[in-house]
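*** Query protein ***
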Amino acid sequence: MLVAFQFCYYSFFQAEEKMRVVHDRKCKKLKRLDERGAEAHKVDSTRSLIKSLSTKMRIAIQVVDKISETINKIRDEELWSQLNELIQGLTRMWQGMLECHHTQSQAVREARNLGRLGSSRKLSDAHLEATLQLEHELLNWTFRFSSWIGAHKGYVRALNNWLMKCLLNEPEETEDGRPPLSPGRIGAPPVFVICNQWSQALDRISEKEVVQSMRIFAMSVFQLWEHDKLAMRERMMANNDLERK
């Protein structure tokens, strides 16, 4: 809905700008006609056109102001409320993931103590298939996690860029260049401040180390599958030799 209102806003705004250009041009023409003492009907025709353009410009400005008020109301009430719900939901999700990962980490540490029993376990085709399926699921998990983080960053960045365009503020010049625009410093509504801080925080965070660790984990499982497959083949060959003897 906000995008639709924004589109209407820019459409009327551009139309008003075009009429303003034509209006200024006709005013200059009217001035030249008056200075040259042109015929009355030419002067009256130009003056009538200027009056018509002025009326249309006033109507366009009123429409733009009304649309702007609607956009601000939706942004500061509905969008802000929805963003609050989204942030709270993401907070609960990350807390749940943290607890889940703690449990998984504990299970992995306990499983390391079972390494001594590896030589006595019985390998089978079902065992190999389960290990390979786990490796595939880990790769899929890694891909989806990377895509989700990318989508998360892209959404927040796009939302923040859109909101920043709504701030009519010219950053001050400094010796080191223009400082980044801070919505909080200029007293912008909370939705501007939160989205700007959110976008900057995500830009400072990199998921590459996590994704690389997930890929290494999947590779380790695949190496385990290769090792078990080779071990099962060697046992089968040993059993066949024993049967022949």
